[in-house]
Amino acid sequence: MSSTSVLNDIPGGKSLLEWFGRIPRFHDAKLLEISFSGSGAGLLRIHAWNMTDQVDAKGYFVLDKHAIVTLILEGVSAISCTDFDMVPGIIFDLEITKTDQSFRIE
Asked: What are phi and psi of 34, to 5 degrees?
């Protein structure tokens, strides 16, 4: 996400910023659910967290601020999925941008 203002324009976005204390990147987040209906509605459910600079006893980065983020979509006009073969899956990158009066999720 390129700026805080995009999340401020989305219902629940301010709470998301407050919880994570920053703009969430969703890198390596788990895609728990994805669904779309013929009516242009859809849903993405994502398990996200903050990765800290701390390392645990096994050498893994310590993760905190876990949250299940649900994006409820309306007026979906196009869908393009690549490397989509399973749920749950791992998200490489998720970006939300504003275009005129709608949003684009990539």
From this structure: -140, 130
